[in-house]
Amino acid sequence: MKQISPRIVQKRPSMQAIAQACKVSPMTVSRALRSDGRVATATQRRIRTMTKKAGYQVNGRIGRPRRRAAAGQ
């Protein structure tokens, strides 16, 4: 696992930065954070460790389902 660069720690780390540090794709990071079964347990652990070290936090505005208005309203 790669060391976390000071740049990642100084500003809010992105999923892309976590992916680069763990040498995986951003989609793998996303799946690991959702405990998707397609990501190996060891890889999930490695990604979660990196997110904790880097201070990664999920953006609350992203990933929430949008509220849809019913037709005709």
List the helices and strands in order: HHHH
- What is the overall number of helices? 4
Q: How far is the N terminus from the C terminus?
A: 52 Å
CATH architecture of the domain at 6-54: Orthogonal Bundle
Mean pLDDT: 83
What would the principal axes of the Cα set say about the shape? globular
Query: Which percent range describes the beta-strand content?
Result: under 5%
Specify Rg, calculated over alpha carbons: 15 Å
Uncertain spans: none
The CATH topology of the domain at 6-54 comes to 434 Repressor (Amino-terminal Domain)
CATH class (first level) name of the domain at 6-54: Mainly Alpha
Count the strands? Answer: 0
In short:
With 73 residues, the chain is mostly helical. It contains 4 helices and no strands. The termini are far apart.
